């Protein structure tokens, strides 16, 4: 039920669960992509034990689920979340030179995973710079620390993500 403060915790959680399922994401995938502390925390948010609109991760969840402005206002009317900046208002469109972002450093353990496992055709993406840069740039609740953990992360996302080409 909506109040002047937005949806109650249970209804806000149900909306998040519905949007996650519409996007075809599992709880684990959403946790990995947003930096939520655990799958059990996401479950508690979706069940209304905690209010998603009061979570420090609300903005990340809203962006990942591509919530509409109406969804955001319905969940938490006072929230201000920048989902995207229209091209017409970007710095580049106004004549400013936008410097390239510094390249994301690739962890040694990820490079080792590419060397150990990347020769297999189904794991060839591990050798691609775009995959390495993307995997290194994704916020993790617990950053992979071994080649095996990087391989596990790659296996979980390889069929759902297509990282963009990144200049290096």
Can you offer a commentary on this structure?
The chain is mostly helical and 168 residues long. The chain has a two-stranded antiparallel sheet with strand order 1-2. α6 crosses α8. The radius of gyration is 19 Å and the shape is globular. The N and C termini lie far apart (49 Å).
Could you spell the SSE succession in H and E letters?
Answer: EEHHHHHHHH
Q: Tally the helices: what do you get?
A: 8
Biggest sheet strand line-up: 1-2
How much helicity do the residues have? 40-55%
Average pLDDT metric = 83
Give me some keywords for this one:
single chain, 168 residues, mainly alpha
Task: Outline the fold blueprint.
Layout: E1 2-3, E2 6-7, H1 9-22, H2 27-34, H3 39-46, H4 58-64, H5 69-75, H6 108-117, H7 129-137, H8 147-157
Antiparallel strand pairs: 1-2
In short:
With 168 residues, the protein is mainly alpha-helical. It has 8 helices and 2 strands, in the order ββαααααααα.
């Amino acid at each position: 039920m909506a109040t002047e403060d937005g949806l109650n915790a249970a209804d806000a959680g149900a909306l998040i669960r519905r949007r996650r399922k519409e996007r075809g994401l599992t709880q684990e995938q959403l946790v990995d992509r947003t930096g939520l502390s655990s799958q059990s925390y996401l479950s508690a948010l979706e069940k209304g034990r905690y209010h998603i609109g009061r979570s420090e991760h609300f903005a990340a969840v809203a962006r990942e689920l591509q919530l509409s402005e109406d969804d955001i206002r319905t969940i938490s009317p006072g929230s201000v979340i920048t989902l995207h900046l229209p091209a017409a208002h970007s710095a580049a469109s106004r004549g400013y030179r936008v410097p390239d972002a510094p390249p994301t450093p690739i962890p040694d353990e990820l490079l080792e995973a590419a060397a150990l496992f990347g020769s297999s055709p189904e794991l060839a993406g591990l050798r691609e710079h775009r995959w390495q840069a993307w995997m290194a740039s994704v916020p993790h609740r617990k950053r992979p620390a071994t080649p095996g953990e990087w391989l596990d992360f790659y296996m979980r996302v390889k069929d759902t993500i297509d990282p963009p080409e990144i200049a290096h």
